[in-house]
Amino acid sequence: MIKAGIIGATGYAGEQLAWFLYKHPDVSVEFYASHNYAGMTYNEIYNNFNGYIEDVCVNMETAISKLSSINVLFTAMPHGKTFKIAEKALSLGVKVIDLGADFRLKSKDEYEEWYKVKHESVDLLASAVYGLTELNRESIKGCNLLANPGCYPTATILGLTPLVKNNLIQPSSIIVDAKSGVSGAGRSASIASLFTECNESIKAYAVASHRHTPEIEQELSKASIGNDIKICFTPHLVPMNRGILSTCYGSLTKAVTAKELIALYREFYKDDCFVKILDGLPETRWVRGSNLCHIGIKVDARTNRVIVISAIDNLIKGAAGQAVQNMNIMFGIKETTGLDIISMAP
Amino acid sequence: MIKAGIIGATGYAGEQLAWFLYKHPDVSVEFYASHNYAGMTYNEIYNNFNGYIEDVCVNMETAISKLSSINVLFTAMPHGKTFKIAEKALSLGVKVIDLGADFRLKSKDEYEEWYKVKHESVDLLASAVYGLTELNRESIKGCNLLANPGCYPTATILGLTPLVKNNLIQPSSIIVDAKSGVSGAGRSASIASLFTECNESIKAYAVASHRHTPEIEQELSKASIGNDIKICFTPHLVPMNRGILSTCYGSLTKAVTAKELIALYREFYKDDCFVKILDGLPETRWVRGSNLCHIGIKVDARTNRVIVISAIDNLIKGAAGQAVQNMNIMFGIKETTGLDIISMAP
Amino acid sequence: MIKAGIIGATGYAGEQLAWFLYKHPDVSVEFYASHNYAGMTYNEIYNNFNGYIEDVCVNMETAISKLSSINVLFTAMPHGKTFKIAEKALSLGVKVIDLGADFRLKSKDEYEEWYKVKHESVDLLASAVYGLTELNRESIKGCNLLANPGCYPTATILGLTPLVKNNLIQPSSIIVDAKSGVSGAGRSASIASLFTECNESIKAYAVASHRHTPEIEQELSKASIGNDIKICFTPHLVPMNRGILSTCYGSLTKAVTAKELIALYREFYKDDCFVKILDGLPETRWVRGSNLCHIGIKVDARTNRVIVISAIDNLIKGAAGQAVQNMNIMFGIKETTGLDIISMAP
Amino acid sequence: MIKAGIIGATGYAGEQLAWFLYKHPDVSVEFYASHNYAGMTYNEIYNNFNGYIEDVCVNMETAISKLSSINVLFTAMPHGKTFKIAEKALSLGVKVIDLGADFRLKSKDEYEEWYKVKHESVDLLASAVYGLTELNRESIKGCNLLANPGCYPTATILGLTPLVKNNLIQPSSIIVDAKSGVSGAGRSASIASLFTECNESIKAYAVASHRHTPEIEQELSKASIGNDIKICFTPHLVPMNRGILSTCYGSLTKAVTAKELIALYREFYKDDCFVKILDGLPETRWVRGSNLCHIGIKVDARTNRVIVISAIDNLIKGAAGQAVQNMNIMFGIKETTGLDIISMAP
């Protein structure tokens, strides 16, 4: 039995993680740590856990004191807050899976430029593994510090990597127009996230400045043969709880049909049971509540462009589900354990 | 392994049932029958089943031809359509679980008055068991024809039975103001159910005339000591996919506190793991996606009234989940098998 | 030209009021005062006013200093905050229309019991007029201090008064089950009002304890012939921006048909162009964005009950629209001036 | 007084048109014609018009018989249905404003290629004026047959024309990622438009094949200096009633800042009161219910791209509002008459 601890357990990603770990046959959660809700029972905060998770949330100090009793620590904190606790856990031999942003970028400078805070654990960057499971499975196996990808990057990188790897897309032509449900904004009291401010509206935000941009570029550049890829990335906020749809555009380097691309994608992801290449187009509702990524591909022959559209549940494949998927691999468990959930419709 | 067939498999209740049975460790589904989608694969209709249920839907004739190879038939059809197929299945020794309305009312006259069609299987009414699991567990065990309760009745009867059975509520005082998500209207093309017609609005409908009224009255009268209970029932349509909230009012027969009632309810449902009595008030989101019923109880001492509020997922505890719960009992399987799902939030 | 000031101009009720007054042919707004946004332009906060209201919001001190230059002050503040400013304005000969709760209840004791704060302007209570326009038009004409009704009371009192006045409903039998959109919770950062916490759910709240209860009782008792009416009142939160639906139940004192009641209501409201008695049932979408109240009436002969359902836009007839309607009367302007807006669908 | 008739009066665009014309000081509507609802009163279909528009809808035959008594005919029909009625009306000296697609494309071939029906009024194409008011005001003045633009084209062309006209954008680089509320799908019973199928989801549709593509290309090419512009266009369906957000991407032909572009846009639209150039980013909620177009502009210096985002209400500036705006010009009335509505928030 893997003993796990969660820090940041009462945010939406942390709560989704608690949901998965509670049912995971090989995991027991030793503590749920929360900055804002320490002292309350978990089910007081999330009533869906009435009769299930009724543990009292602990504070950071208690969490730290329990580090030596666990095998894996999940952290789901705002950026800049995970450095010290990750170091501490690793020094005690505890594997760390960070759902936050602090270990995703390999370049300290890039991190500091986009996140506007000093990176305090530069020494850990080299050994941190970027946990987009389908693309980095081998490195994940032996790693101790896993940087779990962001939600937009997960959908986008899964959508574009087969094209980039096969040199089918002009490196400078990539535009990503992404759409997210409101849970992506987290569970903190803010006027911008009120029902009345989000409902019946759509908007773009952080245009040409969103922090997931360098993360996508880093991984696509890694997949590319000799290109340093820069993308134009625009996230949008959609009035729904969950879901990300990433609509990715690029110019084709040679004539190819959608049918050929679909075959290529199916071959590329043939061993990845959480990625489904569709004949048609994805909709976020079909993956909501699951760890799946649905991908649809179209070619606009008139303009020589490919349009790849990928859909995930931002809290699952885009956060907690992928974290569990990575944990399974890190601990030598079957990758799908505890994750084999089909989306419920409607 | 229980062999099952589903008729009406592509409506929302049928689809939820397919969802549960696909994962049920003791069930294999032999056919998915659909009036409108015969010939299509299941996942073409519901893309969430891509990679999971990819069977071709069959028509009614094929379904009938396969009856002899199954142990249980689930029917999820409009009222008036299940008589013949149920008779046929029963005659072949197949147990029938009907998610429709045709066998819920014990009185043929009441059925014909409220549903405006002739009852064509009057002989079956005596042996049909009303499957509100928590209240009729013993009768369900041996039954061959199970009438699975309606969604509003499930929430309402679970909410009111402890009061009625303990003679704590004046029988003529009961008012039920219920609210449902739009999936309750089913998956048929109708202007009234369009996004644009339901979103950003709430309305009452079928005031003093909804067909679930006699079903609730029948079961509450059965629970009552010598009273023929009539209720005033008003359903409302709420802009959300899933969920029923039933707000039930009645005059108390004696002074009692909410705390005492909560204790009484907890005792009443102490062996029922799908019913949770809350200290506070239920919200449909905390039970959405689960087979749970959350119940909250308040006393309005100023007006000597009790207010009981119960929440369920209309497609699960109000339809497919309870059907599986009943199947488990009918086949001697542990009641919670395949149903132990916690609601996902948000 | 009537010179007006608004205190609490950046809450949702204040904003709706600004919307109406900006277009009102007989009003000029001299200042928009805001606790949280003083110093910002109005359209920075509400971008719909780009190119329209671009005034800088002032703070309370500035507002007070401008009192002597206006004819009417609108206050839209949390309860307990309006006493001093109202006194001050009245002392300067400025008429006051309070959209808050501080002058609605005639009884100081009742106010203090339900609102848990001391009433600091008891002397003003006698002269304050409760501004449910259709019922108090004559008293409104000459008044200086108008207590604009709450949203739930407006819908409920309009729905029940004809029955109460005609002694058609048993005074102790009244139950009000009301449903509101989320804008009723105001525009303040709270986790409970986040999109992700409200969407896809319905809940009751403040059961048997909501502060609008005594307000409804006061006005219904006034309408009644010799009865002190107590009601059982349950508000619910619905995932929509705007709208209140009030479903009111009561036992009939004599046999009467819905048709007769509809005729009675039409006669009762025959001079009130903002109240429409329907043949069918109301839906909040048909009144959203308008100052209308739609009322539908059904009789449940089986249980001898009447069900009256009324729908309003909580921010308009339930707040700012009615405030303007009252202002029009107080200043001798045609009652409908600036208010003749038809709801937009969908 | 302008006498108007509406054919297709009970679809969403027709209904929005009825809303505007009812209040328009210079217009009287002589008939509301409807294919599906002839014989019903208008307010039976749309209850928001109770007490306002209570006319009986007429059928097409009656509409035709009344053509000689009107000055302007509005048609809001599916494509391919307007040819004959437009010819008939024009032959009687009635001006025609078509909210449908039949006269938008100048090229018969392009029409037939994209719409898959034969164009039956080719002779009218030369004289039809494309009614994007801000860009074609002069031609609109004298025209008899006005082709009112589609919703996506309105938002997109307003967003891109200043760049194209000033040769600031590489003609082959344009990608338009647009998002629409569900009212864009019209008011017909279809499973895909059910609340339960649209809510809590986002999807792309008609990728690289949407019929608004050639319309956008035609107008941008016209604005361009010597370029035949082809765009890559992807529409998306968003769970909200109203609103279009068009996110437009292109490569800059020279180094320019967002600030400079904002200044250029403000100059370009300086006489157009319905177009507002923002300092920040648009959100559909701020224009919902109004005839406004809000435009925001960002430059992504890292990738040398401009991102222009425009927001409209699809039923107003994208349909009925612009039709009234065009009517005003065609009849020499002040352009804003009857259209000066501010969006209501929330």
Explained architecture:
Four copies of one chain form a homotetramer. Chain A is 32% helix and 19% strand. By secondary structure, chain A is of the alpha/beta class. Chain A folds into two domains: 2-127, NAD(P)-binding Rossmann-like Domain (Rossmann fold); 152-314, 2-Layer Sandwich (Dihydrodipicolinate Reductase, domain 2), CATH 3.30.360.10. In chain A, the strands form two sheets. In chain A, strands 8-9-7-10-13-12-11 form a seven-stranded mixed beta sheet. In chain A, helix 1 (12-23) links the parallel strand 1 and strand 2. Chain A is globular, with a radius of gyration of 20 Å. Chains A and D meet through strand 7, strand 8, strand 9, strand 10 and strand 12 of A and strand 7, strand 8, strand 9, strand 10 and strand 12 of D.
Topology:
The structure is a homotetramer of 346-residue chains.
Chain A lengths: L1 E6 L4 H12 L3 E7 L8 H4 L14 H6 L6 E4 L7 H9 L3 E4 L9 H8 L6 H4 L3 E2 L2 H9 L3 E3 L3 H15 L9 E6 L14 H4 L4 E2 L7 H12 L8 E6 L6 E8 L6 H11 L6 E3 L15 E8 L4 E8 L3 H15 L16
Parallel strand pairs in A: 1-2, 1-3, 3-4, 4-6, 5-6, 7-9, 11-12
Antiparallel strand pairs in A: 7-10, 8-9, 10-13, 12-13
Distinctive features:
homotetramer; alpha/beta; Rossmann fold; Dihydrodipicolinate Reductase, domain 2
Question: What is the second-level CATH architecture of the largest domain in chain A?
Answer: 2-Layer Sandwich
User: Number of domains in the coordinates of chain A?
Assistant: 2
Strand order of the largest sheet of chain A: 8-9-7-10-13-12-11
Q: What is the arithmetic mean of pLDDT of chain A?
A: 98
Low-confidence stretches of chain A: none
